[in-house]
Amino acid sequence: MVPTSIFLIFVVASLALVLVPGPNHLYIATRGIAQGRAAGVASAFGVETGTLVHIAAAAAGLSYVIARSATLFNVIKWAGVVYLVYLGVRTLTGGQEPAAREVTPQPLRTIFLEGMVVNVLNPKVILFFLAFLPQFLHPEAGSVPLQIAVLGGTLLLLGLVSDLIYAAGAGALGRRLRGRSGVLRRFSGIVYLGLGVATALTGRST
């Protein structure tokens, strides 16, 4: 099991990371502003479900393999870029007819799944688990996969709390912007495209 002193340091370091606004927060906030608090919350749970996938992959050693393989890393990276660009273009166009070019409400299940896919295909998260978590692992303290599960689960819970705060704030802001669907549509589409560009610029680090 992870030593208590190491675990406490990990919690402090993780808090510093999850409190700083990042791509996940931006994605969640965009959903909350465009479609309300429930959509932001669904996005938050979707994103952290994606984090759960990364934790399982890290525990199984897959994150290391992916990060070390240029081909696998690039396949995941560009799949994420394509998906984010698709979301951006779909949001900006909104349909074939001008009358349909509004912020089209998405089912919460769809929003949840999109959040999960966005995070699973985020190469920065793979590199994060490869570079950050290993610093707190101690093989002499017991099972390494179990330590990854404990630390990763802790990070997930802290991240979820942070995500839900952003979702609630975005939902409140979105209520003030109701009636400006054109502005919301353009804002959401540009954010997705921006996240796609940021993902495209992500490279492997040593």
What descriptive keywords fit this protein?
206 residues, 9 helices, 0% strand
- For this structure, the quaternary state is single chain
- Please indicate the percent range of residues in DSSP E strands (runs of 2 or more): under 5%
Average pLDDT across residues?
79
- Overall number of domains: 1
User: How does the major sheet shape up?
Assistant: none
Which range best describes the helical content: under 10%, 10-25%, 25-40%, 40-55%, 55-70% or over 70%? over 70%
Query: What is the gyration radius calculated from CA atoms?
Result: 18 Å
Question: What's the end-to-end separation, in Å?
Answer: 28 Å
Structural class: mainly alpha
Q: What sequence of helices (H) and strands (E) makes up the elements?
A: HHHHHHHHH
Q: Count all strands and give the number.
A: 0
- The backbone outline, from C-alpha atoms, is globular
Q: How many helices does DSSP assign?
A: 9
Poorly predicted runs of 5 or more residues: 95-102
Structure description:
- The chain is mostly helical.
- The protein has one domain (about 5-200).
- The protein has helices at about 5-20, 25-35, 35-60, 60-70, 70-95, 110-120, 125-130, 145-175, 180-200.
- α1 (about 5-20) packs parallel to α8 (about 145-175).
- The radius of gyration is 18 Å and the shape is globular.
- Mean pLDDT is about 80; it is low at about 95-100.
List the helices and strands and how they pair.
Blueprint: H1 4-19, H2 23-35, H3 37-59, H4 62-68, H5 70-93, H6 108-120, H7 123-131, H8 144-176, H9 181-200
Helix pairs in contact: 1-8, 2-3, 2-8, 2-9, 3-6, 3-7, 3-8, 4-5, 4-7, 5-9
